[in-house]
Amino acid sequence: MAEHLEISSGGKEQKYALLYKQIQSLVEGEEDCIANMANISAMIHETFDFWWTGFYRVSGDTLILGPFQGPLACSRIAYGKGVCGTAWKEQRTLIVPDVEQFSGHIACSSASRSEIVVPLIDRANGNVTAVLDIDSEHLATFDDCDRRWLEKIVSLLRTV
Ligand code: SME
């Protein structure tokens, strides 16, 4: 509880630094990727009070909904579609300050205003195996600080 209070009162950089350490020790003690995705979603979501935080996993030419926190979301996203499918295709993190300005954005919820999607890339073959998707109810929530830390967090996941 003391740790949670500390997380809640710090700045974004400090919150991520502490969160990263917590996730690192969690992942070190558990090799199951789904379990880790579930806890990582919960920890990020609670720390920052985002609207939706979760993973989609690559299956063939589709992303399939994985562990998440927040309201119901679409189950499948095709390669190259929406912010998630585009981050997969381009193999890079996408920050969308205003989802209405992103052509092809998939609106799982009308409350979502901005979004960041971070791909999980398999170091062995360079393939994207999953994406972390976070939605905010506010415009321009995500910046380079989020990108840096979320890429570090996602890289802690070994396999899907
Ligand atoms: N907005 C995403 C779809 C997933 S939901 O936001 C959870 C997209 O455009 O890919």
3D structure, described in words:
- 38% of the residues lie in helices and 24% in strands.
- The chain has a single domain, classed as Beta-Lactamase, CATH 3.30.450.40.
- Mean pLDDT is 93; it is low at 1-8.
- The chain has helices at 2-9, 12-28, 33-48, 82-90, 144-154, and strands at residues 52-59, 62-69, 76-78, 94-96, 114-121, 128-136.
- With 160 residues, the protein is α+β, with helices and mostly antiparallel strands.
- It has five helices and six strands, in the order αααβββαβββα.
- The chain has a six-stranded antiparallel beta sheet, with helices on both faces.
- Bound molecules: methionine sulfoxide.
In short:
This protein is α+β, with helices and mostly antiparallel strands. It has helices at residues 2-9, 12-28, 33-48, 82-90, 144-154, and strands spanning 52-59, 62-69, 76-78, 94-96, 114-121, 128-136.
Please report the total strand number as a whole number: 6
- Unreliably modeled segments: 1-8
Termini separation comes to 31 Å
Give me the number of helical elements.
5
What number is the mean pLDDT? 93
Fraction of helical residues: 25-40%
Q: CATH homologous superfamily?
A: GAF domain
Ligands: methionine sulfoxide
Strand content: 15-25%
Structural Rg: 15 Å
What is the chain-wise order of helices and strands? HHHEEEHEEEH
Morphology call: globular
Biggest sheet record: 6 strands, antiparallel
Proper CATH architecture: 2-Layer Sandwich
* Name of the CATH class: Alpha Beta
Number of separate structural domains: 1
Spatial order of the strands forming the largest sheet:
3-2-1-6-5-4
Q: Write the CATH fold name.
A: Beta-Lactamase
Overall SS class:
alpha+beta
